[in-house]
Specification:
Bound molecules: flavin-adenine dinucleotide
Number of helices: 12
Largest sheet: 6 strands, mixed
Strand order of the largest sheet: 5-2-1-9-21-20
Number of strands: 25
Distance between the termini: 72 Å
Radius of gyration: 24 Å
Structural class: alpha/beta
Length: 447
């Protein structure tokens, strides 16, 4: 194998998510040079993004600077760069500014949202994938209550305080459940002209049940728990269009100042850029050792890889798969360097957990199915354990304990723009506060 350096082979890792980060961490003690390229300077703990979107946690508590993670590892170079493609014959990664030569390449660029061919819906219904997206969702959610208060104070008729979440998978369920908690508990006593608890949280799922990746009994339990939290669950509801301030399901038009997208994912374009066969979602059909056909020196891991387990089922796009795959390819490189044959990847499924909201969750550990408080506690401790950085674990634990007992959510900041798509058209012209309304301000609550 052609080496970029006479001494140590160079491993270029694209993406410092769960897959890339774990590959790098497992390689740092080996005689290799590592270059990690990511378009963000931080690793994001995506399972807790919904907490940032719903003002429970601040971004710094669920993200870690990549450079900081590898502070003590002299053989790791971190590059803040966007990867644009590859030249597999020349063994280079093409970035915006330069070509990076490699001996081994690990592509772990993850997935993004899919709007089923309706990319025009994206600005109207943001999805939850990055810190930036979570902050935009937080802005829209909190701003809706503020605008509603302002509007009620102006004497105009009340705006529908509807929040629509599209997609009843794990992300949609956790977003809907937590939005209900915010509206019905956290904000309930803080507004004077509106009653936040009249907000409707509507979860639209195109299929027959929420959490379709779980067993039917757990889907049913999740639906019951959502209803108890105050979420309206509508299954069999395929969204047919999204417009500013509203969603259509067939003939039904649902007015909603906030629409959130949790319905589909597509692999990063870098999968197709490798020029090897991909599945319909753009995930690379990898070999049993996670390399790509014809290039044993190129691996794809995590959400960008498509591999079937021994029962013929495609491995799910979840963090444990990405973590185990990242560690596996590091081991494969280690074995190459030691002159040992490669092994095949096997996923060790330790179970699945989905949180729904306060003290509500479902968990599936083989034949053991748990719902409610115990599942929620398991979810909480497992996620805190896997957070990157001891400081973050402590901070998140304290925040959670605090908000569990007080119903407070500490990160309720509206930053950036103070307009919402679809809201301005509903505003009355030059609202005027009458003396009667002024009197109402300190005490009364309308609605
Ligand atoms: C909201 C949400 C909640 C989730 N909840 C859970 C959960 O509770 N449990 C669970 O197991 N899984 C959960 N997942 C799934 C889990 O986060 C993913 O399976 C996992 O992150 C995949 O890891 P990865 O390394 O493949 O990709 P990612 O973690 O997505 O990392 C990809 C990295 O590549 C970088 N990148 C992408 N393109 C480029 C480029 N062109 N150039 C440079 N860098 C690039 C990105 O910046 C990113 O850092 C959730 C996902 C989301 C979005």
């Amino acid at each position: 194998m052609a080496m970029t350096s006479k001494t140590k082979p160079r491993v270029v890792i694209v993406g410092a998510g769960f897959g890339g980060l774990n590959a790098a961490r497992s390689l740092v003690k080996e005689p290799v040079q590592i270059i990690i390229v990511d378009r963000k300077n931080h690793h994001t703990f995506q399972p807790l993004l919904y907490q940032v979107a719903t003002a429970g946690l601040s971004p710094g508590e669920i993200a870690a600077p990549i450079r900081g993670v590898f502070r003590g590892d002299d053989n790791v170079v971190v590059l803040l760069e966007e990867v644009e493609g590859f030249d597999l014959e020349r063994r280079v990664v093409r970035t915006r500014e330069q070509d990076l030569a490699y001996d081994y390449l690990i592509v772990a660029a993850g997935a993004t949202h899919a709007y089923f061919g309706h990319d025009e819906w994206e600005p109207l219904a943001p999805g939850l994938k990055t810190i930036e997206a979570a902050l935009e969702i937080r802005r829209r959610v909190l701003l809706t209550f503020e605008l509603a208060e302002r509007r009620a104070l102006s004497g105009a008729s009340e705006e529908a305080l509807n929040f629509v979440v599209v997609g009843g998978g794990a992300t949609g369920v956790e977003l809907a459940g937590t939005l209900a908690e915010i509206a019905h508990h956290v904000l309930a006593k803080e507004f004077r002209s509106i009653d936040p608890s009249r907000a409707r949280i509507i979860l639209l799922e195109g299929g027959p049940r929420v959490l379709p990746a779980y067993t039917e009994d757990l889907s049913r339990s999740a639906e019951d728990q959502l209803r108890r939290l105050g979420v309206e669950v509508r299954t069999g509801s395929l969204v047919t269009s999204i417009e500013p301030g509203a969603v259509r399901v067939g003939e039904t038009r649902i007015v909603a100042p906030v629409v959130l997208w949790a319905a589909g994912v597509a692999a990063s374009f870098l999968g197709k850029a490798l020029g090897v066969p991909c599945d319909r979602a753009g995930r690379v059909l990898v070999q049993p050792d996670l390399s790509i056909p014809g290039h044993p020196e190129v691996f794809v891991v995590g959400d960008l890889a498509s591999l079937k387990d021994e029962h013929g089922k495609v491995l799910p796009g979840v963090a444990p798969v990405a973590i185990q795959e990242g560690k596996f390819v590091a081991k494969a490189i280690r074995r190459d360097l030691a002159g040992q044959p490669r092994e095949s990847f096997h996923y060790w499924d330790k179970g699945s957990l989905a949180t729904i909201g306060r003290a509500a969750a479902v968990a599936q550990f083989g034949k053991i199915h748990i719902s409610g408080f115990v599942a929620w506690l398991s979810w909480l401790f497992i996620h805190i354990f896997f957070l990157i950085g001891f400081r973050n674990r402590i901070l998140v634990f304290i925040q959670w304990a605090w908000s569990y007992f007080t119903y407070e959510r500490g990160a309720r900041l509206i930053t950036g723009d103070t307009t919402l798509p679809g809201w301005s058209g509903m505003q009355p012209e030059k609202p005027e506060v009458t003396s009667r309304q002024k009197e109402k301000i300190p005490t009364a609550r309308a609605g």
